[in-house]
Structures are given as C-alpha cells and as structure tokens.
Amino acid sequence: MKKAGILNRHLAGALAELGHGDGVLVCDAGMPVPDGPRLVDLAFRAGVPSFAEVLDGLLAELVVEGATSAHEVLEANPAAAGLLGRCFPALELVPHEELKSRSAGARLVVRTGEARPYANVLLRCGVFF
C-alpha cells in the first residue's frame, strides 16, 4: 500500500492516465455529472471530503496549465472563489451553463462531498517539463 499521496486506487489510476491538455472537473456534490468522462466519486457525506481538501490533494499530484470556473462562484460562494483565486491567479470565469457544457469534454470528473454551491473547477493538465 502507498504510504503517501493519493490512496484511492481509482483516483490514483485515473490521474496516471492523464496527458497534456486533458480536462479534470473537480465538482461539488450537486454538479450534474456528464456522461462520458470517467467518474471518481469521493463523496462520503455532505461536506466530506471538502472541495478544498480534494483540490489540494489533486494539485499536489497534477501539473495544471489552466483552470475555469463559473463566474457565479464570486457571489454565491466567496470561500470557494477565494480558494480558486489563490490557486489560479489566471482563473477563467464563464457562465455556469458554459462550465457544464465544457465539462462534457473532460477526461475525468472528481466528485467531492462539498455541499456549498459553485465549488467546481475544470482543470487543464500541463506537462512537468
């Protein structure tokens, strides 16, 4: 068994398969999950694991060259907006409906237990060299 990093075997395996430009949607428990992308559902109960915890773990494992979220997060969820702004200074904000449309093209969806609205971000994978 791994002693560090992501222990969930489904998530660890999915991350290992990602390549440059692949999309990863990290979403709250209420975000509609599109058909098509691989889903790793980490939700255990409302708020567990949190969006912040999952995002922190993923950012320790991935190279991210871009991120997109819904502009509604700014008013509806200031805590998530602050976290996203700190993690991604060049965060792209689009209408929530557009984020949902773009998420259909993601390669992986990671569903958190987050119960606050608009705690969603679409990550674009980069390369480590």
Largest sheet: 6 strands, mixed
Helical percentage:
25-40%
Low-confidence spans: pLDDT under 50, at least 5 residues? none
Mean pLDDT: 95
Percent of residues in β-strands: 15-25%
- Tertiary shape: globular
Q: Report the structural category.
A: alpha/beta
**What is the H-and-E element order?**
HEEHEHHEHEE
Number of helices: 5
What Rg do the Cα atoms give?
13 Å
Strands, count? 6
Termini, distance in Å? 28 Å
Walk across the major sheet and give the strand order.
2-5-1-6-3-4
Layout of secondary structure:
Blueprint: H1 9-16, E1 23-27, E2 38-41, H2 51-61, E3 64-70, H3 73-76, H4 78-87, E4 92-94, H5 96-103, E5 108-111, E6 121-125
Parallel strand pairs: 1-5, 2-5, 3-4
Antiparallel strand pairs: 1-6, 3-6
Please explain how this structure is put together.
By secondary structure, the protein is an alpha/beta fold. The protein is 32% helix and 22% strand. A 6-stranded mixed sheet has the order 2-5-1-6-3-4. It is globular, with a radius of gyration of 13 Å. The N and C termini lie far apart (28 Å). The relative contact order is 0.32.
